[in-house]
Design a protein that fits this description.
The structure holds two protein chains of two kinds. Chain A is mostly helical. Chain A contains four helices and no strands. Chain A has two domains: 50 residues; 48 residues, no CATH class. Helices cover 46% and strands 0% of the residues of chain A. Chain B is α+β, with helices and mostly antiparallel strands. Chain B has two domains: 205 residues, no CATH class; 164 residues, Barwin-like endoglucanases (Beta Barrel). Chain B is 56% helix and 16% strand. In chain B, helix 10 runs antiparallel to helix 12. The longest helix of chain B has 39 residues. The relative contact order of chain B is 0.18. Classes of the chains: A mainly alpha, B alpha+beta. Chains A and B meet through helix 1, helix 2 and helix 3 of A and helix 1, helix 2, strand 1, strand 5 and helix 5 of B.
């Protein structure tokens, strides 16, 4: 049956294709089996009133990015640049970083 | 149909024999190709699972958090502030929260100290002198329920607490560095007078009214900064987009190197390959057969690389907790949560990854072969 290289290659491809499809089945089964833990986490967040994921504990604006203000990353001294490595993985909160519409070219009255 | 299948298997046989003649080069290509798919798929699976988990877990975070700002910095809520908030219509419940950071010089880690609200999961276990700790804190300090632990407060006083409980390991993603203590202990530890709070959590009767209430807050208490739940969720959405982008930028160098390598391998035909095509045509192969053979070559390499790379990425992210990303995500932090992400595989993303990795390589293999195959065999062999 597997005397030819093409047969061996096709069997191998079928095998890894099945393994690929199994990852989707595994994902679905893990989602079902861990839905209780996820719900428990959501309850913990609700009851303790948590606001952030505990991903980076090195600085307060990386531990609670949603509670940080724009100055917190540069707070140490004037012109103090942000220096924690996680800062490069973490943008400032979106609501703070949103820029306002540029009105300077639309105004009729010169300043 | 049987003849067609027989022909294709014969072509695959020939292709495999041809690949085996340049074993090292082709195996190297397969390995690099697989590594690229592995890295791209790992980033994609990790960020998409984290994004989904953040959205699911944080959907229950407080609707509105009110902070007080002094000179652009977060300050304590003074007494009387809570009462003034009560007059805003639509606010159903308001609660002063007490939480802050503590740097533990023993293990050089930052903890989040927090007073659980009444009725919270661990509130029953937290009493004066008793604390509940997050799983990462317990791991780092080797704590189990019943142990005693001392912290030196910022005032210089030593405080001892008995560990009443450890928060479950499954909740590390949200509570790894938490330390829950009673209100009296918190106020004594940080020397925060009664009536002062870190911030205020509000719940709103009608979710449609949240934005109006935020506007009213800004009007009534001009020094306040309301943070809405939807902003928290949006912040996380943008963090993961950003992070995915950053990692992809870092990876882009290697992706470009691979693209050049693959393009060179696939499109620049070596003299040996050209001679092979010339000989095949001279002995009677049609242009279509040569193209089919090369199609199989491209398809076998790219499909194998994609499938193996993707499976490895899936196992890496969901079975080995994305161990390769840990040093990058950890930064200088000592406490790092150990969490197993719940898989969230987006079929569209997988299809996009497939399209951008398998398709270009297969096309890049076929086009130059087609150019060589339509020329005269004699000319091809002589060139």
């Amino acid at each position: 049956m597997l005397s030819r290289n093409s047969h061996r290659a096709l069997v191998f491809l079928t095998f890894i294709l099945v393994a690929f499809l199994l990852t989707f089945a595994d994902a679905a089964s893990q989602r079902t089996s861990r839905s209780a833990a996820l719900a428990a986490n959501a309850r913990l967040v609700e009851r303790l009133g948590l606001t952030d994921l505990c991903l980076f504990t090195e600085a307060r604006y990386t531990r609670h990015p949603s509670q940080a203000d724009l100055h917190s990353a540069f707070q140490d001294h004037p012109i103090g640049l942000e220096h924690f490595p996680s800062g490069s993985l973490l943008p400032p909160p979106r609501s703070l970083a949103a820029s306002y519409e540029n009105l300077d070219r639309k105004t009729n009255r010169p300043d | 149909m049987k003849i067609w299948i027989e022909k294709q298997t014969a072509l695959i046989d020939f292709t495999l024999a041809s690949l085996a003649r340049r074993k090292v080069k082709n195996f190297g290509l397969l390995l690099v190709y697989m590594l690229i798919v592995f890295l791209l798929a790992s980033v994609m699976l990790y960020t998409s699972a984290l994004r989904r988990e953040a959205a699911q877990v944080l959907k229950n975070s407080p609707e509105v958090i009110v902070q007080r700002m002094v000179a652009g910095r977060h300050d304590l809520i003074p007494p009387g502030y809570l009462e003034r908030l009560g007059r805003i219509r639509g606010v159903q419940k308001k609660e002063g929260r007490l939480w802050g950071y503590y740097y533990d010089a023993v293990v050089k880690a930052n903890y989040t100290f927090m007073v659980p609200t009444a009725g919270a999961v661990a509130a029953g276990k937290v009493a004066d002198g008793k604390i509940v700790v997050g799983a990462a804190v317990a791991r780092e300090r080797g704590l189990v329920p019943g142990n005693l632990i001392s912290f030196r407060s910022y005032s210089g006083r030593q405080f001892s607490f008995a560990v009443a409980d450890v928060l479950p390991h499954e909740a590390e993603l949200v509570s790894a560095d938490l330390l829950l203590l009673s209100e009296a202990d918190y106020r004594a530890f940080f020397q925060i007078p009664a009536g002062h709070y870190t911030d205020i959590a509000l719940s709103v009767a009608n979710p449609q009214e949240v934005r109006n209430i935020a506007a009213k807050l800004a009007e009534t208490l001009p020094d306040s900064r309301p943070i809405l739940r939807e902003e928290v969720l949006r912040t996380y959405e943008s963090i993961f987009n950003w992070r995915e982008g950053i990692v992809l930028v870092l990876l882009s160098g290697s992706i470009l190197a691979f693209a050049i390598f693959a393009w060179e391998k696939a499109s620049g035909l070596s003299a040996e390959e050209k001679r092979e095509i010339g000989i095949l045509k001279a002995i009677g192969w049609e242009t279509g057969d040569v193209l089919k053979m090369k199609f199989w070559e491209g398809a076998l390499i790219s499909l194998t690389a994609f499938l193996l790379g993707y499976i490895a990425a899936y196992l890496h992210v969901f079975r080995f907790s994305a161990a390769l990303f840990e040093p990058v995500l950890k930064g200088w932090a000592v406490l790092y949560p150990r969490f197993e992400l719940v898989p969230a595989v987006d079929g569209f993303q997988v299809a996009t990854l497939f399209f951008f990795t398998v398709f270009p390589y297969t096309v890049a293999t076929i086009v130059p072969i087609w150019r060589a195959a339509i020329t005269d065999p004699d000319a091809v062999m002589r060139s």
